Amino acid sequence: MSKPHILHVVPYPKEEETSLEARFTLHRLYEVDNKAAFYKEYGATIRGISTRASAGVTRETIESLPKLEIISVYGVGYDKVDLEAAKARNIIVTNTPDVLTGDVADLAVGMLLMLSRRMSQAEQWVHSGNWVNTVSFPLSRRVHGKRIGILGLGRIGDAIAERLSGFEMQIAYTSRQPKETAAPDWEFVSEVVALAEQSDVLIVALASTPETQHLVNAEVIEALGPNGLLVNISRSSNVDETALLNALESGALAGAALDVFEGEPNINPRFLALENVLVQPHIGSATTETRQAMMSLVLANLEQYFEQGEALTPVY
Ligand code: NAP
């Protein structure tokens, strides 16, 4: 039986592409110079798309593939897939939830520890020989026992809260409605500004949708205040970066730890000039174990769909 044809939008790590290629006929869009000619020749043979959360799929691509049935996203975010265009044609969209939750939560906690305890600066300080020549490294901020506000108690937000409970933190959160939480004392706060006001640290774990765009705005940042810290491991669109940079530069906010940025990897250079910012290159799910699990799920979604007509983790 011939292998189903798949449009592969952006590269995966080499060993992961091998497993995809064993099962499907891959057309690598990123190697195509003349897209119009490519779609004319192969467009009607392609039944599936494999892509990454960071690349998504455009309306133009969807509309160029008349036989498209399924889009399999490597990543949990599908905000870069044109859902309207996909839904209009009943095209299934799948992502890789759950398998990456623990890694992203680990990173959020690690970033909070690094930012608060200034571990990155402390290491630089040792490397540059200052330990020998100076009395001691400047004091940093305590982590345990602080008041945490989690914006979006979904899969990842919940895993972050579970981890931070082990640091004797007071946990409050906002979602669209109160949740059955792992511990009875996690407090639901419906208003984002009120959550920021009562928190020492605000952690953003929201989905990225038109409704969550800039949910963390100047007012929220002001409410978090000059002793407050912001951690964002979700998507840059959830935070107003200009307001954030202004607050970090003026001291209206104590610090931020960020894994996601507008226009990444070309991030705003103002971030790099700041001592009170910890930057990470969007590595929330970037461990060998998780990336293998994500790839298995991308494959399983495509295989199960082509064999049984149903995907494992459709997003709608
Ligand atoms: P999820 O389970 O869908 O959780 C999303 C949360 O956002 C839920 O708590 C949801 O509230 C909340 N939310 C959605 N719309 C909202 C609105 N209009 N107002 C207030 N809250 C709203 O997603 P997840 O798997 O935890 O992923 C969370 C985020 O992490 C996503 O943005 C994803 O793209 C990002 N992510 C980042 C990395 C990385 O490498 N840094 C890796 C993976 C994922 P309800 O509970 O009320 O529905």
Automatic annotation (TrEMBL):
Residues of the D-isomer specific 2-hydroxyacid dehydrogenase catalytic domain: 44-315
Gene3D superfamilies: NAD(P)-binding Rossmann-like Domain
The entry's keywords: NAD, NADP, Oxidoreductase
MF GO annotations: glyoxylate reductase (NADPH) activity; hydroxypyruvate reductase [NAD(P)H] activity; NAD binding
GO cellular component labels: cytosol
Domain D-isomer specific 2-hydroxyacid dehydrogenase NAD-binding: 109-284
Top-level taxon in the UniProt lineage: Bacteria
Family (UniProt): Belongs to the D-isomer specific 2-hydroxyacid dehydrogenase family.
Name used for this protein in its record: Hydroxyacid dehydrogenase
Species assigned in the record: Leucothrix arctica
